[in-house]
Description:
- It is a single chain.
- The chain is α+β, with helices and mostly antiparallel strands.
- It contains eleven helices and nine strands.
- Among the domains are: about 5-50, Helicase, Ruva Protein, domain 3; about 60-150 and about 155-170 and about 280-285, Elongation factor Ts, dimerisation domain (Tetrahydropterin Synthase, Chain A, 2-Layer Sandwich).
- Helices cover about 45% and strands about 20% of the residues.
- Helix 2 packs across helix 3, helix 3 (about 35-45) crosses helix 7 (about 120-135) and helix 9 packs across helix 10.
Amino acid sequence: MSSDHILDKVKKLRELTGVGFKDCKNAIDESKGNIEKSIEFLRKKGIAKANKKMERVAADGLVCICEKENKFSIIEINTETDFAAKNNEFIKFAEEISKLALTNSGKMDDILVSKMENQKKVKDNLISLIAKIGEKITFRRCDFIGSGKFINFSYIHSSLKKNVGRIGVLLSLQTTKTENELLELGKQLAMHIAASSPLAIDKKDLDQNILQKEKEIITEQLKNTGKDPKIIDKIAAGKLNKFISENTLLNQEWIMDPKKKVIDVLKESANKGKIEIIKFVRFRVGEGI
């Protein structure tokens, strides 16, 4: 390997790891020019504890769902660009982690140390993929639903392929109905959640900090309008109730028929039986980053 080629390798390794020239040159020599093995060498030496690229923002990526026998996992993996998110190797990596998320019941720590098909741990393959694609990649979050007592559903919006897309939803229902009787409703509810982005199932499930913050914002806005202080509290209460209705699943307008609320649709579908939403999970790529 020519000296110019070695210098190019060292430069790339420094960009990826933030490690000094001498240590990178040593790693390249020890690994015979292999970047992935050089990163592994530096990590084993405790020199490259974090990738330099991890300082950058990764707000693109994919949401993946895996399902088996009424059990579902959902994960979000982020990249810096849409281009990298559509990379076949990245998609394959995300799908394999999705399967491991199902096996490990959505427990992040267990997933990261699980071995992938190449017999390397997830966290090590993640570093290798960063080196190969050249972008920051983060395994951001995961969740899981699965119980014989409930009937579960999933939905992917803006899909690149089956169970891979930009928005993913998991939904768990407790009911006296059979799964076949609920197939259409379950799919529609999951689609509704994807489109309407509720924060909680009902008012009692809303984070009180969110409610308090919203109340403060509404009150301050009303004060700035110069309205009579005597009626501000009444108007604020009305606006807060509207916020609750728009952000709690049961009280939202049903996307299939805005004249109805979700709770009305559940009652109609249950008839004399029971349909109760136990849990939902909604991931949208880059949300909150």
